[in-house]
Amino acid sequence: MSSSESDSAVDRPEPLVVLSHLVHRLLKREGGNVPLERVTLRVSDYVDIGDQEAADLIDAGAAEGIFTLDRGSGGSTTIVGVSPQGEEPAVITEAFGGPAGATGAADFQALEVVTESIATALRDAGYATFTDLADADVSDLTGLTGTLTESRAEAIIQAAPRHVPVGVWLARSAGVRYGRRVDETTGRGTARVVDITAATEPVGEPRYRSEGLEPDAVEAQYVSDIDRNEQDPVPTGLHVLDDPDHPDVPKAVTHPEAGDDALPVDVSGEVVPPAVPTEPRLQLPLDELLAKKLARGLVPVRLVGPRGSGKNYLVKYLCHRTNRGYVSVDCDEATHTEDLFGPLTPTEDGLIAPRNGPAKQALLNGSVLVLNEFPVMRAGAAMSLHRLLNEGKLLVKAHGELVEPHPSARIVITMNPPTREYRDSEPMNSATRGRFRALEQPYIQEVDEEVATLDAQVNASHEVVDRGTLRKIVQFAHQTRQNENWPTLSTRNLTILCEHIEDGASPKAAVKNEVWAVAEPNQYPEDTYETLNDYL
Question: Which end of the chain has the lower number of beta carbons within 10 A, N or C?
Answer without folding.
Answer: N
